[in-house]
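So, can you check this one?
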Amino acid sequence: MIKLFRNIRKKLVAEGKTTNYLKYAIGEIFLVVIGILIALQVNNWNERRKQNIQKDLIVQSLIRDLKMDTLMIDQTLNILKQDTTQVFGFIKQMSNDHVTIDTLINIARFKFDPKVHVAVSFNNNTLKSLLSTGNLNILDKWLQDEILQLDVMHEDNISRTQLNLRTYVDQVISFERKYPLGDYGNISPHSKLAEAIWEKAQFEELGTYLNGLLAIRNVTNIYAIGQLNGIQEKTKEILLQFSDKQSKQ
């Protein structure tokens, strides 16, 4: 094609047809410009297509993460609510006017499980990858805003949980310096040594220790339930928006 254009130019120059040559030159330039624009358009279209494919993959990954979180949060909330009900039951027994030292020992020695279940690991690998690579802006603006708000809620939950857990662990350690709780790492609550320790338990002292332990456990659970309910609501709201937008496409 280039050789053909060159031959045409030579022929026009040789024949002295300057006007026709200029018209031809302008037409040739126009064709080159059109060709460049078409090539750019094709390249832009191809880049948009690649970006849309990448965006769809990211969105699907986000949806999977969010759905996994809803299941995990539901399970954790069920455990926390059951635990809170049990803790309130212990507090109710201790608040009864007929409470005795045997009541307190029975709760602390055999019924109360010091292990907590408030720590949650959110499925946010997709979001963290987007933030670290700077690809967050590939998503629609509404989605960027929503998942960033959700990420803030995740971080708030993690920091609050860590703070409450440190306080709770300190309370457990303080209790176990005096009385052995029935958890892993302690002597068996049915052992001879445990029997000897519990025989010397004093009503007011044990009541003070146990009340402090149950109180911080209760606070830890209630904070976790409140935050996780908010996160669950936000997560489901984002999933609903995904569903609505997909149905309109």
